[in-house]
Amino acid sequence: xxxxxxxxxxxxxxxxxxxxxSRDYAIEYLIFSMSSNEEELLGSAIYxxxxxxxxxxxxxxxxxxxxGRICEKYIYEARESFAIEPNAILYSLLKRRLSxxxxxxxxxxxxxxxxxxxxxxxxxSHMLYHLDQNNLVxxxxxxxxxxxxxxxxxxxxxxxxxxxxKLCARYTPERWLWTAEDVVSDATLNDIAGTGFKLIKExxxxxxxxxxxxxxxxxxxxxxxxxxxxxxxxGDAFQDHSAVFSLRAxxxxxxxxxxxxxxx
Length: 264
Hints:
Blueprint: H1 23-34, H2 38-53, E1 59-63, H3 72-75, E2 80-85, H4 88-98, E3 102-106, E4 119-125, H5 133-146, E5 147-158, H6 163-171, H7 180-183, H8 186-194, E6 197-205, H9 214-225, H10 236-247, E7 255-262
Parallel strand pairs: 1-2, 1-4, 2-3, 4-5
Antiparallel strand pairs: 5-7, 6-7
Helix pairs in contact: 1-9, 1-10
């Protein structure tokens, strides 16, 4: 694949949804992830795919790393690893967890250094939801420009029939623009091929979700905001989200993991 003098990120348009930068998003993410076995299931699945199609001992970039609990499962053997997260609260937790051996960056994928990182693998787990069609192409071009020939890009999305996706789409419909079903549409497969990738593998997982306890909820608040912070101080919006997740124990959290090979 010939490299252009222009950088694909120059065409990136900022998402209209900025909720994922907020404190409420960080709280929601932590409650949701701590109510699931996704950390172990997804982390192990991605690690196995990296070993199968690339190398876990190479150079790996994780985009949208949240607090690092999942990505540390598949980057711990890497010769050099990078993790980028746009939410300031989650980034602070990410840096605390991984900074000893991982280069942690606060920002989004356009904020990556404009140098070729010669990566073996890039992982973007549950981050495509925020990209429109134009930004998807920009993201794929950017990812391809950072991968070595033969490197892999791993994408993770909820399935179209997933109750978890429906739940989020119902509450914040402008945020959830992509599902696993959309990735295998003709239009997206054309974008994948046109940016120098080939879809080589699909894997499926279904992490379980259980209702979290009041004790777990208090622990999250203490972890984020200190022991003196009361949940009541964070407003009705968070209480509404708490009720939703508490009442939906066992909802479908089925996900698809896609592996794309850089072939040009």
